[in-house]
Protein 1
Amino acid sequence: MTEQSPVLKKSLRVLDVIERTIVVTMIALLIAVLVVAVVELWRLFATGAGSKLGGVASSADFQDILQNAFGGVLVIFVGLELLETMRAYFSDHHVRVEVILFVAIIATGRHIIGLDVHHTEPMVFVGLAALMLALSGSYFLLKKSAKFSH
């Protein structure tokens, strides 16, 4: 193995400091975004629940309310999983593929929940179902292979 020159060593240390600074900054930003999102979701729930629930005239109205509520919660879960990805990258210097797949599954599920079933083309649902199957299958196989490797 060849020894690195002092200039290369110093350059690598500087790059490591820059990388860590960027990751810590992104983690702090993501935490701030999540805190604001949770506060805003609670505010929307507190102010909107009374006015909207009192005015529900049909099951379609109720379904719209639930879709918005579940969508908001799932967006926060996506943010939490992204935070976990950043934390893992900061401590291990690698991105865990299972977390990325999990975020993609949650985001796809959130997109499906938010779709208007009456005005969306059927092939969109077929495509999203295929995407969800591919992501879920990948997640399953990744977890199964991790079990066998330990």
Note: The chain has one domain: 10-149.
Protein 2
Amino acid sequence: MAHLYYDDNIITSETSAPGSADSFAGPGEHDSGVPDTSRFAALSGRMWQLMQRERALLISLSKFLVVGGTGVLVNSFVLFLLFQWVHLPLVMASVLSAELAIVNNFWWNDRWTFSRTQLSLRRFAQFNLVSLFGLVLTTGTLWVLVHYLGLYYLAANLVGIALAAIWGFAANSLWTWGGAR
């Protein structure tokens, strides 16, 4: 019986020769052991790498959403205070509450989601630029849903935040933290 050696998911046989009894290849054909097994092993290795990459992405997304949840609470509470108690105009109250939530989210994403130990003004500026579009998206959604569809302002705010969260995770994962794990 041949001894099989596994090297980089390719199976080679020490004693098999093309056309020999324990080889699957015919005369004149190259045989590297058991081709179906080597293909399966290579496929399994690739699947494992894909699963690990997807697992890391899922963990980052989960953390990002938890941090975003704290941002929703900060945003909604400050919006309520500024609009109901301080009586600022709705759009101004939304902009201020969103910026406070952005600062909260940057801090926690930088420390927890992407495990950074040093604060970076560059990352903060990038996060704010990405969040600026999210802010426009949140505030625009809020304004349209309240003024044109008559939706309650806090419910409209949550819809805007959800749309901005999708944008924010994609852009920040790729640009602000450069795919960091």
Note: Residues 110 and 119 are 8 Å apart (CA to CA).
Protein 3
Amino acid sequence: MTFAGLIETIVFTVIDPLLFLVSALALLYFILGVTKYIYHSGDAEKRTEGYQMMIYGIIALFVMVSVWALVGVLSNTFLGGSYSSSSYNRVGNVDCNNWFYRTSNFCN
């Protein structure tokens, strides 16, 4: 296995799922903050806690999107575009990684 192949394997099997998991947790944290903010609208202290949770959730989502973009840029720069060509299989404007188009034989 080449160095580029090893890095690509690490990116696709470790980093991408990890970024997805952490992004999902950040979104859940944001939603919990919204719920706390709305549910405890009469209590100023709980409402402030909910507001802070929403802010931290938004910051975490921003960081995850930034890390995802940075991984894509670094991978495209140092691996010669293998990140985008492997992760996005497109025919025209159709994403062939989408299960609907894969099962309909549109991309074959």
Note: The CA atoms of residues 3 and 25 lie 32 Å apart.
Protein 4
Amino acid sequence: MPAVAAREHERGAGENGGKTREGQRGSPSEGSRVILPCLEEGHVSERRTIEPVQPIYADRASGQTFPDARAMVNAYLARFGERAGTKLEPLDASGYTLVNKGSASIGINVLEDHGVLLFVAPVMTVPIAGHESFYRRLLELSFLTTSDAAFAIDAQRDEVVVRSLRRLSGLDYEEFEDLLDTVGKVADEWDDTLRGEFGR
């Protein structure tokens, strides 16, 4: 009898163990049933249609408004020319014109597709040798010396330029004049100096 009782005890223990394992297996399943509804009921970001912001073409100081970016820049060019005592050519069909200041020639580009105004003034051709020291010099100058402008490389022409970008929307005349003056001043001041230091 003791042997039979022992076997019955082992059988019972085995059955209890199976229940425990089933309970353990059941526990994650119950957890999943708790978690999944949370995921299903969670807040999903709704797709919203964002209406494009209309650009502002106006000079805050004078209150003058313009129908488009080119009309605004042409008006600013005429105003700049009056102050400088010279006549400036308006933008051509591509949105480009050239302004001379000292020894600098500043290209003004209205890039309406990108919504920006780009000023570019050529400085010199990239030197054949000594690129590392040359580029370091340009970066150091662009840190503070060039103000709102910066030196850059026009890869297509292998040319060093001074350039400045500004969003067209909300552009005031004073900002336009300041950027044009800055680019012209930096190019006029550093073209001879950089050519003297690095040749070519």
Note: The radius of gyration is 36 Å.
